[in-house]
Amino acid sequence: MNPWQEVLERIEAGANQELAEFVSTLGELGRKAVAVQLPGHVAGRLGEGMDGRREIEDQAAGLRIAGAACLGGAAQVAAWLNRRELRRVLGPRTDAARILSLIRDRPAPWRRELAVRLVGRLRQTRGTGVGARVEVGTEAVPGWHVAAGLVAETGIEPPDGDAFVAGWAWQLAEAHRWEQPPPLCEDPLLDVMVPRLFRSAGVAGALAWSERRKRGVSAIASLAALASQGRVPREVLLGGCAGRFVAGGVAGELTPFVELWHQLRPEPSEIPVLGFVRLLPSAPSPLVRLAIEELRRADEAGLLDDELFADAVRSLALRPEKRYVSAALQWIAEAGRSRADGALVALATVLGEDSPALRDRAARLRSR
Description:
Helices cover 66% and strands 0% of the residues. The protein has helices spanning 3-13, 16-23, 28-46, 50-58, 60-70, 74-81, 92-102, 108-120, 144-154, 162-175, 190-196, 203-213, 219-229, 234-247, 251-264, 273-279, 285-300, 306-317, 322-335, 340-350, 356-366.
C-alpha cells in the first residue's frame, strides 16, 4: 500500500495519534506523495455537497496532521491549516501539540515564517464579546494554540495584534474552567501579554466569561494573585487598569477591569486621583461607582486637595442619575465647613433639580 493510502485510511478511521506517528516516519518521497494527493482529495469531497463538507470537517484533525507534516512550503502549510473547513477541531491543545511536534525538525527560518503567517491570519470568532450568550472558550480564536506555540518555540517577538492578545486571554479563561488551573506564572508569554491586555479589543469578553463561570477561580483572580506574589508588578496592573478606564468604552467592556482593580486592593497612595476625577462627568456606571469609592478613600487619607474635591462633587451634581447627585450631597455633608466654598457650585446645580428631596438637601447644606 502506498503512503497516501496509508494516510487516508488513518484519516478516515479518525486514528489521529497513529496517523501522526506514521507521517513522522515518512521520508521525503513519501511526504511528497501525500502532498500531491491531499488537496485534490479535500476538493473532491467538498464537491460532493453538504455530506462531503461534513465529512471533511469531521476529519479536520487528521487532515491538519497530514498537511502540516507533508506539505512543503511554510505558505502552503499556513494556508492549509487556515482553510475554513479545517480550522475548528476538538481538543485544540492536543491538535497544536501534534502539529508542533511534526514540524519541529523543519529549518528554523521555515518555522519562523510559518509562525508569522499563522499569527497574521488569526481572527476572533463573532459573538465573543462581553455580551456573548454562548460559551466560546477555545473557539474564540481558531488556530491560536498552534500560532502561539510557534511564537514561543521560535522566539519571535509576540505580535501585538488584537486577535493574538485576545487568544491569549481566552486560553487563560479556558484554563480556569477547573478548580486547579495550570500555573499562570509558568506561561512563557505572560510578561509580554499582561500589559497588552489593557489595550486590545476582545480581552474583556474573555475576562468577563471567566469571572461569570466561577468567582474566586478566574483569570482575574489569578492575575491579582501574581501581583501579590510579586511575579507581575502591581504598577503594571494598576496602571493598565487606569489607562483602560481613561480609554473608555461601554460598561461591559470596563467591568472586568473594575473587578481586577478591586481585587488588587490599591493603597490610597496608589489611586490616580486626578484621573478618577476626570472620569466622573461621563464614565459608565461601574466606573463611576469605583471612582467615587476610591476618591473617597483618597480624601480620607488627605490625598484629595480642595480643588479636586470641588471638581468631583460638581461633576457628580451634573450627572443625570439621581444616585450620583445624592452621592455628591452626602460627600459635601461629610466634608464639613472647611470645604464649603468648593461645594457651592455643586449645591447651586442641585438647587435646579426637579427632585424636591434633592433640592431640600442642597438648600439645607447651603445654609449651614
